Every structure is written in structure tokens, then in C-alpha cells.
Fold this sequence. Notes:
Shape: elongated
Distance between the termini: 87 Å
Oligomer: single chain
Number of helices: 3
Amino acid sequence: MTEFIISNIFGLIIGFVTSFISWCILFHGIVPKIQYSKKISKFSRPTNAGIRYRIKFQNSGWRDVIDINLIGILSIEGLDRKLPHNTFTFHIPIGASNIPNLPRSRSGVQRFLLDKVDDISLFPPNIRDKFQNQTLQLEDLLSLGTHASIKVHALGYDSFSGSRKLFTSPSYTLDDIGDGPYEKDSLKLKQRVET
């Protein structure tokens, strides 16, 4: 009888430990991971129709990410001189804000839609004028206040487990804007060849 109780307790402990290890591997080890480029791509469109700002991201994990929602958040500290330590946040729409599937080892490039910024009433008059004239540039927004940055949040589901995960980019500042498109299979900007 004692052997029966000891073997059941031992089996129960082994079962919990192996279940926990399996859970850790499946939900923390072999998971999708989204990496972001270190720079925002800035380039002029060939038709002379303005400038585009793009962000590139890649699923460097083990499984697909499905039903991805992309959100751009602009944070500006010191926008209002009367409240120099307050941080104001603005939603910056991103091109295709819903992506149905990002397979493993694949990347996506999306652009910031500066002509659709949600609330421009808090911006200085010169920024509101540029917005109305459709000449607003990302550099204009990142130059406001005492510190400004933009982050991209990708909210998606692990295709295997169905668990929802949040993947956040680094904070991009004015210094993180680079000229030109991205390399094909890389998160880096193409090197410009001087002629």
C-alpha cells in the first residue's frame, strides 16, 4: 500500500514537472518573434507625389503570426510649454494595419500614413498648415517638444497555440530616419552608392 502511494505521488510530481517543461518550451521557446528594422526608411516616390516613411519587420521566430494589428504611437514630451513634463500621444495610422498572416522567416514593410494623424489640434500652427497642405513630414513631428519618438506595436496570434502576443518596436527618434529603401531579405537600409 505504501509503495502504491509513493509511486502515485512520484508519478504526479513527474507529470507536473514534464507538463511545466513542455508548456515553457511551447509557449516561451518555440514561439513567433517579430524583429523591427533599426531605421525608418524615407524615400521620395518616383511620381514626385511626396515622401514615404516605412517600417520593416520580420517574423524571426519558429511559428507563423496570424491576424496582426499594427499601431503606430507618436509620443511627444513637452508639446505644451505650460506643461513641459507631460507626454502627449497620437495615433499614427499604418498602411495595412491588419495583416492576416506573417509566415516564419518572412518580412513585411508598411508605411506611416501621416495624412491621417488622429488629432492635429494640439500641434503648432505651422504643423497644422503642413498637414492641411499635405506636406507634413515625419521629421516635423519628431522635432516637436523636448523629446519625441514613435513606436510600432504589432498585436498578433501565435498560429499554433492561439495565444495573443504583443511585439513592440524600439523607440524611433529623429536620428533613426534613414534615406532609401530596405534591402530585400534584410532589416537594413540599402547602402547608397556614391557616383
